[in-house]
Each structure stands twice: as C-alpha cells, then as structure tokens.
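Sample pair:
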Amino acid sequence: MDFRSILMGLAFALMWSSAFTSARIIVADAPPLASLAFRFLLSGIIGVVIARMLGQSWRLTRDQWRATAIFGLCQNALYLGLNFVAMQSIEASLASIIASMMPLMVAFAGWVIFRDRLAPIAVLGLMAGVAGVTLIMGARISGGVDLMGIALCVIAAMALTVATLSVRGASSGGNVMMIVGLQMFVGAALLAAASLATETLVYTPSWRLGAAFAYTVLIPGVLATWVWFALVGRIGVVRASTFHFLNPFFGVAIAAALLGEKLGITDVIGVVIISVGILMVQLSKARV
C-alpha cells in the first residue's frame, strides 16, 4: 500500500466518521428522511456534473448498473436513512460505533454464507469485536438508551455490509464519479417517497442547520464516496476496508468535540477493543 493510498484511506475514515455528527445536528431541526433525500439530490447533481466535466460517460457496464442500484438502495436509502431516523433518539457516537462493525459483519457473512476460510487472527478479531460491542451496549442499555434506535442502527449496518460487498462491481471499468452521482439519485428517490408517506415537512432554520447540511452534501456525500470508490479501485475492497478500524476512534472523538457527548471509561475500552478486532480481521484478509 503506497503513501497516497494511506492518505486516501485516512481522509475517507475521517470524512465518513464526521457524517454522524453532522447528521445529529440536522435531525435536531429537520425531518430526517426529507433532509437526506434533498442531500442526495444535490450530491447527485454535483457528482454527475463533475463526471461530465471529466468526460465520463453515462454508459455503464451491466455490473456497474447493478452495483450502483444496490449501493444506492443499501447504503443511501437503508443505511443512512435508518441512521438519520435513529439519531433522533440516540447519540452520534453510539451510531458511529455500531456502524463501524460493518467490516466484522462482512467477514462473518463471508464465513457463514460463502464458506470463506478465516485465519485464526480473523476469528480472534471477530470475537474481540463482539466483546467490545457487548461491553458498550451493556453499559448504554443499563443507562437507559433507546433500544429502537439501536435496532435501527444494527439493521443499517447490515445494509451497509451488503452495499460494501457490491462495491467491487462499481469500482471497475472507470466512470467512478458518474457512478457516485447516479447512486445518489437512487437514494434520493427512495427516501423522498418514504418521507412523503411518513413525515411532516417542518424544520427550524438556523445557521447551524445550514452549515451541517452543506457539509454533509459536499464532504461525506460527494467527496468521501468518491474517495472510497477510488481507493477500492486502487488497492481493492479488502485493503480499503482496513481503514474502517479508525472509524470508532474518529466517530466518538468528533461527536465529543463538536456535540459535547460524554464518553465513559467503558465506552473508551469498548472502542479500543472493537478497533483492534476490525484491524485483526482486515489484516488477515490482506495477507490472503
């Protein structure tokens, strides 16, 4: 892995983790699904315009169209939609910790569904991840955390797992920025329909809401997604996913710094254990 890839991975992890804090700010003053649908519409337009300026084509391969649709559904509509709804009742740090379990879920799915062989270090990593989550959840549940919010985040992480497994088809064959834009439109359409059916479109305007929304559109929305696809195309999905071990650290640190969310010693220990588990699993795959 070269230095440029390392910088791309660090940038992606930081941007991806920051999205939970900006989302928490947005859902405090605006309906979550409508806000997210509008974000995807704007991000999609920006992505497609940039793609056309770069000379990229609308003509995708069959695998790219399939992966774009799956990614738009699973990551944008389900993963982010459920997380936005959940963060009306749970903290951004907890949502980011649950989401960071995705690499462990990918490894577990490969073992159970596809009969992939797991190295001993990967098995230990899975066990560490489960132990870390159990430690954090035990403390949070005893403190009265919203169980429905946790359930939505867990389902969202499962959807992100499916999206991640589909990335390889989207990252091959070029037209990366075009794919980024088009999968945003998939999420926008699905979430707009869900919002119209379930939400009252009322929001409280403020500079904080505007800044968080603009940041979410441009940074986690367009830039982080492009960096992820580009990184996967450069070093492969296994090595790219190694950087997810940083997400628990970045997620809780950003939420604590910007939102003042309090973290107990149990949370810190759990985050460290989860991060080590993710790193063990991904390093075991990188050696294959």
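DSSP finds 13 helices and no strands in the chain.
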